[in-house]
Structure formats: C-alpha cells, structure tokens
Amino acid sequence: MHKLKIFFLVHFFTIVVFxxxxxxxxxxxxxxxDTQKVLDTSLLGKKMTNELNKLHTDFxxxxxxxxxxxxxxxxxxxxxxxxxHSLSEVDKEKLEKKTRExxxxxxxxxxxxxxxxxxxxxxxxxxxxxxxxxxxxxxxEIGKKEGYLLIKNKRGAVYYPEEVDFTAKVIKILDSRxxxxxxxxx
Length: 186
Known about the structure:
The protein is built from 5 helices and 2 strands; from the N terminus they run H-E-H-H-H-E-H.
C-alpha cells in the first residue's frame, strides 16, 4: 500500500511539473514578408527607383548627344570622301583630321558608356543595399516586438497562410518613417 501511494505521488508530481505547464506554453509565431513588394510599393522604394530612372535618363541623354556628334562627323567624312580622287591636298588633310577626330570621339563615347554603366551599377547596388538594410531592420523590429520565432521572405516560402504575411505592416511603418524624414538622403 505504501508503495502504491508513492507511485501515485510520483506520477502526480510528474504531471503537475511537466505536463500541465506545457498546456500554457506560447504558440510559435511565424511570419512572412514580401521584401520585393516592399521595395516596389513603399515610398522609400519608389523614391529610390525614380532616382535611379532619372540617373539612367541623364546618362542616356548624354550618350545620345555624343552619338549625334559622331553621326554628324561621319556625314562630313562621307561628303569629303565621295570625291576622294579629286581632293586637293588641303581637303585630304581635312579628311584625315576629321577621321582622327571621329575615331577619338568613338573611343571617348565607348569609354563614357562603360563609365556610366559602372556608375549606374554601383549606385543601384548601394541603394539596394541601403533599402534592404532598412527593410530588414523594420522586419527585425516587428519580430522582436511581436514575439515572432521565425520570419521568412515570401520568395523562399512554398506555402503559408495569408494571416502570417505582414508585408503591409512593414510598408506602413516604412512609409510613416519616410514621411517623418528618418532616412538619410542618398
């Protein structure tokens, strides 16, 4: 009888200590955020996209102007070279000078195009790193504040219920901070 009492007491304490507290445990919170949507629709993301588009337009306009200069020189050379057989020495020197000038302009335009491409890629990378860092900070802040155990990017998630997606909340926080001027000028 004494052994039976001890047996029940041990089981009772086991239940009280190990099983009952597990019923009160917190539910695991998992969240999903669509970072691409944040980049595309937030005010900060739109601003950076517009700035990059303006930079691209400026570079393109400059290259177009250089291309027009080259076309103009090519037409002049074509006019001079049509009657190459009957050119005087002065005209031949002028043709050679224009040809050298054309080659230099073509070389300069190609170098400028490569320079602009490198500058644009560098600027795009810097801006993407900056906004990605800002978005990650906001997501981490939400995760800590609301007790998320795991937050996954939508791109890597195969399935998730819509209730765990808090992309709209991230956009709302980013937009409010943008309106308050909390982001550094790029």
